[in-house]
Design a protein that fits this description.
This protein has 35 helices and 17 strands. It is α/β, with parallel strands linked by helices. It has 5 domains: about 200 residues, P-loop containing nucleotide triphosphate hydrolases (Rossmann fold); about 150 residues, Rossmann fold; about 100 residues, Winged helix-like DNA-binding domain superfamily/Winged helix DNA-binding domain (Arc Repressor Mutant, subunit A), CATH 1.10.10; about 80 residues, DNA polymerase, domain 1; about 110 residues, Arc Repressor Mutant, subunit A. Helix 5 links the parallel strand 3 and strand 4. The radius of gyration is 31 Å and the shape is elongated. About 5% of the residues have low confidence.
Length: about 725
């Protein structure tokens, strides 16, 4: 076929003047009946590579796609261009299905879209046997490869379909494939190596940035303010997160709709349609959204959570700026997202687990690199090198480089600890040894006896993990197996021997914000605090309730700092409301007055707390209430983690806030299985909570001499609070 024919179809049927990069070459190759693998970035015009040949071939072109929801869109667009096309999938009524099969049988169709599972049924295969099939197009071809980010076993069976139609040319298409995945696709489909076309992965118009995720809701709103009334997509990890964020944005007055597989089909289609037609500006979605959507004016893509792989990340940012105009891509990154994905990877096994670990490691390295142009590792990942020194269109190229500091001492401590633990453990365990943890694993292996035990308390665990990831990327460590086992490289041994300097970044320790922290930092009278605590214990024992039910530590700290002498002053103290003033006010005022008289002290001025209820109902965030109510309805910690895309300790924090605000929590059954504490340790923790109050964990941790870590203490505190609620009060 001459190229003029394909060019005239490009102009007359589709209305384009020129081909995009590699389109012409791929089309010519297909028309010459050579099996072809084409890798083109999202928005690179893959569809025309089979649509134009379908109009030049005499027989039928079959397009295999996993995206049922998008077949209808594709077919509608083609019909608008006057191309006779149909789809066969489970969304059709039996009558419509039958009619469409009849059109195919009568040779009235040029393009037929089917899902792989539909194609593999007997009736469709025999339908295709009755007509001339000239081209088999496999869209989203990375699904064939176990090394791809979206492996689907039914795609492997397409080899049999190829054998069944030996005269049909085969075109495999994907937007994202590493050289390993491309090799796997070619080998599986028995392609000749020469017929591979890989377009450049560089999308110059996209500004790419990674921001540390601090307050994701506020950060998202700040980004949206930059793109007022523009179209954009926000990707979240879980369906629940999608629903919550979409509802929050709506409440803030943004035009936003959710999209995920948990919605009813009709609602999902409605929301997608509203976005495509610009009836809504923002779509908040799981990764199910956007494949095959040809909306050119998406001005921004925000990753609210970390994607599982570089492939999916690249594919998702590729949905921005298809019109070639500037677009903005932001990834909000926090290590807790990594822990969350790791939790789900741990549920897998075998090769699936290995591949998932490799994908996650690659995206973490990319997100944490604050020095290299963002395009370099992205394009390298797909086997393309980016030669320019700077792209001038990413955060790392447009901001001052992160200043490097001398991290030699930290590197030596970490590498020595890996060596002394016999190179059999992951970074988390090494950090625990350095921090002097008394957790079960450290003690079981006798690692509390190592010379490196407890020598790293100057950094937090999060900072040690960041040091570990830098040592990996610098080539001092290598990581293997599904347990991420670390071992030293020759470079590390050399460096330790020569005491070579190592330069890197020490992450700033995150400050944990605690409500009312400023007031707690006020100098308070520790002797008075001890007397007030004893008073609280006596009154609690008398009433048969835990001490925190009387007053929290925070309330006692403020009493010991401001010495209130009257009911009016006591009401200004955080956590003292009218009911508690009536019940306990006189007794506590008496203690404070006596102490002040004896020591010649006077009341200090105190501005009222913002909420007269203290840690009351009004201070609870909507998210805390949603999580607590779901827990009361029977949701497990694991289910809540999945829904909200947060780690277990954060779920426990929400539940603790809820119960400490005086609300009832039931459903404590599954908590026991989450802690490694022995019954004796549990008893000791409960006794410490009784004595010291469960409001803050540090006093309890100290009282138990670090016998239990904070994760275990959070779970035990939850069990304690639920158990005490269930006891009858006098």
């Amino acid at each position: 076929m001459s190229t003029t024919t394909s060019s005239s179809i490009l102009q007359q049927t589709f209305g384009y003047d020129t081909f995009r990069p590699l389109q012409r070459e791929v089309i010519e190759n297909v028309l010459a009946r050579r099996d072809t693998l084409a890798v083109m970035p999202t928005g690179g015009g893959k569809s025309l590579c089979y649509q134009i040949p379908s109009l030049l071939f005499e027989g039928l072109t079959v397009v295999i796609s996993p995206l049922i929801s998008l077949m209808k869109d594709q077919v509608e667009q083609l019909r608008a261009f006057g191309v006779p096309s149909l789809f066969l999938n489970s969304t059709l009524s039996p009558q419509a299905y039958q009619e469409n099969m009849e059109y195919v049988r009568n040779g009235e169709v040029k393009l037929l879209y089917v899902a792989p599972e539909t194609l593999l049924t007997g009736r469709i295969l025999s339908l295709l046997d009755s007509v001339q099939v000239d081209c088999i197009t496999i869209d989203e071809a990375h699904c064939i490869s176990e090394w791809g980010h979206d492996f689907r076993p039914e795609y492997r069976q397409l080899v049999e379909v190829r054998k069944r139609f030996p005269n049909a040319v085969c075109l495999a298409l994907t937007a994202t494939a590493t050289s390993r995945v491309r090799q796997d696709i070619r080998a599986t489909l028995k392609f000749a190596t020469t017929n591979e076309f890989v377009a450049s992965f560089n999308r110059e118009n996209l500004y790419i940035e990674v921001l540390p995720k601090r307050d994701a809701y506020t950060q998202t709103v700040e980004l949206l303010e930059r793109y007022k009334d523009q179209s954009g997509i926000i990707y979240c990890f879980s369906r629940r997160q999608v629903d919550e964020l979409a509802a929050y944005l709506k409440m803030r007055g943004y035009s936003a709709l959710p999209y995920h597989a948990g919605l009813e089909d009709a609602e999902r289609k409605r929301n997608q349609e509203a976005f495509i037609r610009d009836d809504t500006q923002i779509i908040v979605a799981t990764i199910a959204f956007g494949m095959g959507i040809n909306k050119p004016n998406v001005r921004f893509v925000i990753h609210f959570d970390l994607p599982k792989s570089i492939e999916s990340y690249y594919q998702e940012i590729g949905r921005a700026g298809r019109d070639g105009l500037p677009a903005h891509c932001t990834l909000l990154y926090s290590y807790s997202d990594v822990a969350k994905i790791n939790y789900f990877i741990d549920q897998k096994d075998g090769n699936g687990k290995r591949v998932a670990i490799q994908h996650l490691d690659a995206i973490v390295r990319y997100a944490e690199d604050e020095r290299t142009c963002r395009r370099k590792p992205l394009l390298n990942y797909f086997g393309e090198s980016y030669e320019a020194d700077t792209c001038s269109n990413c955060d790392n190229c447009t901001s001052a480089p992160t200043p490097l500091t001398d991290i030699t001492i930290y590197a030596q401590k970490f590498l020595s600890c890996v060596k002394r633990a016999d190179e059999k453990f992951g970074a988390g365990h090494i950090a625990d040894i350095l921090l002097g943890s008394k957790n079960e694993k450290v003690l079981r292996w006798g690692h509390d006896k190592l010379s490196t035990y407890n020598i790293g308390t100057e950094l937090t665990k999060k900072q040690w993990m960041h040091i570990a990831r830098q040592l990996l990327s610098m080539g001092y460590l290598k990581q293997e197996g599904e347990y991420h086992t670390l071992s030293l490289t020759a470079r590390a041994l050399e460096s330790l021997r020569k005491r070579e300097p190592v330069f890197g970044v020490v992450q700033e320790a995150e400050r944990v914000r605690v409500k009312g922290k400023k007031k707690e930092e006020v100098e308070y009278n520790s002797a008075l605090f001890a007397i007030l605590r004893q008073k609280r214990k006596d009154m609690a024992d008398e009433a048969g309730v835990p001490p925190y039910v009387v007053f929290s530590d925070r309330t006692l700290v403020e009493m010991a700092a401001y010495y209130p002498q009257s009911s009016e002053s006591l009401l200004k103290i955080s956590g003292v409301g009218q009911a508690k003033l009536r019940q306990y006010g006189d007794a506590f005022l008496e203690v404070i007055r006596n102490y002040c008289e004896k020591h010649g002290l006077e009341e200090r001025a105190l501005t009222p707390s913002p909420s007269p209820k203290g840690r009351g109902e009004s201070e609870l965030s909507p998210r805390t209430r949603i999580i607590a109510e779901a827990f009361n309805e029977g949701a497990t910690i694991q289910e809540l983690m999945e829904r909200h895309g947060i780690v277990a300790s954060t779920i426990l924090d929400h539940l603790t806030k809820y119960i400490l605000a005086g609300n009832k929590l039931s459903n404590g059954k599954g908590l026991q299985s989450l802690t490694s504490a022995t019954p004796e340790q549990q008893g000791a923790a409960f006794a410490a909570f009784d004595e010291l109050s469960p409001t803050y964990l540090k006093p309890v941790f100290d009282k138990l001499n670090g016998m239990l870590n904070y994760d275990d203490l959070k779970i035990l505190r939850m069990m304690y609070l639920i158990a005490r609620q269930e006891q009858p009060h006098h």
